[in-house]
Amino acid sequence: MMAALYALFTIDILFVIGGFRKTAIAFTILGLFFAALMFWHHATDILQINW
Amino acid sequence: MVKWERDLNALIIIIISGILLSAFGVQLFLHEQPCPLCLLQRIGMIGVAASLLMNVVYGVHASHYGLALLSSLFGGFVALRQISLHVCPGFSKFGLPVLGLSLYTWSFIVFACVVLAVALLLFLYDPKESQEPRLPIGLLGKVAIGLIVIIAAANILTTYLQCGFGPCVD
User: Which of B37, B47, B155 sits opposite A42 (nearest CB)?
Assistant: First the structure.
């Protein structure tokens, strides 16, 4: 999952270089959303934090 | 002004690439495997670099700075979360300290500096100048592009070797 997230950001950078500005912006937002989900999984679910 | 601003953006990307390279150095030469939260902080840095790269390639836009701020907010929050895991007296630190501070503490400082740098760059931002035709990418920009592409691709490989395509073990 984490490797896929890195792949998503690498594709995002390739979109930036390739001239697809709006797609790159969408990919960055999508990547950050998935990264936030991953963070939630690693930071709270596994450690069973009581907020 | 736009050319100068774009060079500053490229310089920030090069600095972030240097930080990511040094993290690779710790991983490969000191054999210290990064934790999932460390990997997420790297993703935050790559997100900042990708956002600022848009300024280098397409010219300066406020939306690109917005993405950089979102990425640094994410990375800074992850770093702060990791600091809070180890900050209490008696709890062990994770990883080797550099100049007395853990790598995740340095990571938080880096994200705070990115927010500060973007705030200062926004003072220079002029929407009229961003409407001008695209300038060719300068030497600093080309170096920044080369570095961040190599580092992002290398991260896929090392993360795959460490975690596979499944979730990383905590």
Answer: B37
Is B168 among the domain residues?
A: no
* Inter-chain residue contact A3 with B49, CB threshold 8 Å: no
CATH number, domain containing residue B51: 1.20.1550
- pLDDT tens digits for chain B (170 residues)? 567 888 999 999 999 999 999 988 888 888 888 888 899 999 999 999 999 999 999 988 999 999 999 999 999 999 998 888 887 777 777 777 778 888 889 999 999 999 999 999 998 887 877 666 677 888 899 999 999 999 999 999 998 888 887 777 76
Strand, coil or helix: A25: helix
- Residue B170 lies inside a defined structural domain of this protein: no
Distance CA B167, CA B57 (A): 34
For CA atoms B142, B43, A14, B61, the dihedral sign is negative
One-letter identity of residue B28: L
Considering the domain boundaries, does residue B157 fall inside one?
A: yes
Domain count, chain B: 1
Task: Give me the domain span that covers residue B98.
Answer: 3-163
pTM, to two decimals: 0.90
